[in-house]
Amino acid sequence: MTKKPILFDHDGSVDDFLSLVLLLTMPNTHLLGVSITPADCYAENALETTKKILYMANRTHTEVSVGRFHGVNAFPPAWRAKPKILNALPELIGVEVGADPYQCKDSKDLLSVKIRASEAPVTILMTGPCSNLVQALQADESLVSNISQVIWMGGAFEVDGNVATYNHNGTAEWNVFWDPLAAQELLNYELDLLFVPLNATNDVPVSLHFLKQLAKHSDHKWAHLAGQFWATTLDTIPAYEYTYFMWDVLATSYLQIPDAFEVKTREITIDAIGPSAGRTYYQEGSGKWAKVATKVNKEVFYDYLIQAFTSLS
Ligand code: AGV
Ligand code: CA
Q1: What confidence score (pLDDT) does residue 238 get?
Q2: What's the gap between Cα 34 and its chain centre?
Q3: Atom of ligand 1 nearest to the CA of 79
Q4: Domains of the chain, each with CATH number or no CATH
């Protein structure tokens, strides 16, 4: 069987890195490259963590890129600094990798080179803002024909958003809010686009119960590392919210357990400016067609995680 080619664009929060590990556990996928968006991270630190994980998995040949574009609504600095802690964990601190963002391609270029070069249409998984992909498409719209699906952790449809900041009414999810113009633009392309929004991720917090289950498997290298990574999320900043969710990890799981999701096909719209910038909503009759994952079977999902993190040596 030929493996499914995947491009992974992430933005360096804890669940973005765990999504990377999860991708490495998937037997029927071929990871063509990893592009970083400097959104919920500082590029240097996120590049370092990405390369350390690839090194630990013997996947140093996987090309990594760093986006040069910065969105209009910056993430809070305390969130962006998180990979500094990850890189200092005992498993990672001794792994020496070069991590100079300017030695890497720009992420929009890595995406277009890899999409163009792939023999089979590529699945694109995005767990940060969508700016890199939109910029690649703006430069060459013909890339669309070699993209089989875009899976994006983003949005909040008819549920509260998670942006709490000045001049905003709280309706947006952060990955959309960082660059709402790009998000609005993404809808204009003829893509098979699946949103994995807060509607589905709200049901799957990072819970102590799950971390206890996972810790029973700490003799597995990746289960151990995942437990350490998730433990750093339990102090999520109260000014915003008290809970860190499985956001990106849930979106990534869709590749392996699609039947655990409830998916609706709807016409949607995204606000690009004003107090609702980044808001995603259904708009029958005048929106753009896209798929929205509205629910997940929690038990299947958490069981899958335990199985996946104990499957890679
Ligand atoms: O909105 C969810 C997205 C996901 O891609 N990110 C975190 C995940 O990687 C932004 C975000 C929302 N709340 C956060 C976030 C928090 N409390 N800490 C860090 N990032
Ligand atoms: Ca993310």
Answers
A1: 66
A2: 11
A3: 19
A4: 4-309 (3.90.245.10)
By the 10 Å C-beta count (0-12 exposed, 13-18 middle, 19+ buried), 58 is classed as exposed
pLDDT at 240: 72
- Residue 237 pLDDT > 90: no
Q: Which ligand is nearest to the CA of 196?
A: 1
Percent of the chain with pLDDT over 90: 93
Give the residue carrying structure tokens 């890899």.
114
| Atom nearest to 237 CA in ligand 1 | 17
Tell me which residues have their CB within 5 A of the ion that is ligand 2. Answer: 11, 13, 16, 127-128, 248
Which residues have any ligand 1 atom within 6 Å of their CB? Answer: 13, 15-16, 40, 79, 127-128, 153, 162, 173-175, 236-237, 240-241, 244, 247-248
**Mean local confidence (pLDDT), 195-216:** 97
Question: Measured between alpha carbons, how far is 149 from 44 in angstroms, rounded to an integer?
Answer: 29
